[in-house]
């Protein structure tokens, strides 16, 4: 006789598959078919929903407070986009500052996760600090998405930036899938038991292996003509940071007493549950390639 928990797990998997089948083509269409400015409005909508969800991590539980927070995130990014030159985003000082902020924030986030729950004493009682954490998570995600999407666009290569965005997403998806598979088969040593008991060091190793395979395949078979010299180094760092993007959201959810960031996406939870790794991976990849190393 099939247990109730088994039925729930099978139903959840069904919802996940259906949602993925619908969402993945839509994401690819948005990246490859929309002009950067139009793509930016899609990203802003996603960031607004992420801000709405983050409000509860900051301790703003009321429906009105959460809506206002989400609207402020979206409105602020919309106003910013109207001032940006999509042909040369890296010339904008605010874009550069946001990417540097991401590099600093995700180093700090790693330390907060490693030292949790002791680290919670620094921020758990402050709505302002937790909102600032949301700003340095969501705003650089927007600027990283846009900086990558606009690569090569002004020079006539309309798809170059879309391929780089796809590369980062494939890295994260491969790392997640590899970590899940290796963790289920071989996982023994907990990576961050007080934040996410299911994550193991064996899973992390598996994620790095599968992401490495994706990186190798991409470097050989993508239509891009040139690749950064430091792509492998950057990719390893990005995969590691993406894991902590997931763990950081788990840390905030655990402290806030919530299971999912919301129920917007059937079988997947909320927007933040789907982009948590990408909020770390995208701006860190863009920042390392464009600010720290020699660029594309």
TrEMBL record:
The keyword DNA damage does not apply. Keywords: Cell membrane, Lipid biosynthesis, Lipid metabolism, Membrane, Nucleotidyltransferase, Phospholipid biosynthesis, Phospholipid metabolism, Transferase, Transmembrane, Transmembrane helix. Pfam families: CTP_transf_1. It is a multi-pass membrane protein. Its EC number is 2.7.7.41. Pathway: Phospholipid metabolism; CDP-diacylglycerol biosynthesis; CDP-diacylglycerol from sn-glycerol 3-phosphate: step 3/3; Lipid metabolism. The keyword Transcription regulation does not apply. It catalyses: a 1,2-diacyl-sn-glycero-3-phosphate + CTP + H(+) = a CDP-1,2-diacyl-sn-glycerol + diphosphate. GO terms for molecular function: phosphatidate cytidylyltransferase activity. GO terms for cellular component: plasma membrane. Its main location: membrane. The chain crosses the membrane at residues 12-32, 38-55, 67-83, 95-116, 128-149, 161-182, 203-219, 231-252, 273-293. GO terms for biological process: CDP-diacylglycerol biosynthetic process. It is an enzyme of class 2 (transferase). It is found in: Cell membrane. Belongs to the CDS family. This is Phosphatidate cytidylyltransferase. The lineage of its organism: Bacteria, Pseudomonadati, Pseudomonadota, Gammaproteobacteria, Enterobacterales.
């Amino acid at each position: 006789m099939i247990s109730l928990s088994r039925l729930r797990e099978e139903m959840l998997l069904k919802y996940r598959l259906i949602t993925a089948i619908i969402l993945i083509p839509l994401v690819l269409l948005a990246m490859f078919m929309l002009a950067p400015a139009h793509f930016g409005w899609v990203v802003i909508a996603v960031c607004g929903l992420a801000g709405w969800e983050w409000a509860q991590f900051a301790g703003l539980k009321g429906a009105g407070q959460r809506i206002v927070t989400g609207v402020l995130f979206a409105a602020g990014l919309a106003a910013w986009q109207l001032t940006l030159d999509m042909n040369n985003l890296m010339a904008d000082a605010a874009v550069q500052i946001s990417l540097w902020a991401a590099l600093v924030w995700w180093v700090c986030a790693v330390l907060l996760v490693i030292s949790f729950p002791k680290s919670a004493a620094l921020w758990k009682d402050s709505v302002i600090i937790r909102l600032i954490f949301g700003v340095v998570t969501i705003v650089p995600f927007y600027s990283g998405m846009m900086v990558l999407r606009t690569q090569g666009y002004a020079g006539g290569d309309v798809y170059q930036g879309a391929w780089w965005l796809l590369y980062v997403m494939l890295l994260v998806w491969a790392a997640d899938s590899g970590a899940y598979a290796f963790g289920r088969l071989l996982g023994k040593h907990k990576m961050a038991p007080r934040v996410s008991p299911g994550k193991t060091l064996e899973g992390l190793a598996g994620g790095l292996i599968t992401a490495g395979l994706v990186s190798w395949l991409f470097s050989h078979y993508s239509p891009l003509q040139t690749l950064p010299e430091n792509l492998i180094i950057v990719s390893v760092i990005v995969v590691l940071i993406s894991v902590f993007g997931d763990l950081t959201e788990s840390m905030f959810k655990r402290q806030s007493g919530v299971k999912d960031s919301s129920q917007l996406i059937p079988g997947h939870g909320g927007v933040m549950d789907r982009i948590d790794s990408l909020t770390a991976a995208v701006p860190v990849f863009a920042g390392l390639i464009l600010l720290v190393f020699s660029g594309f």
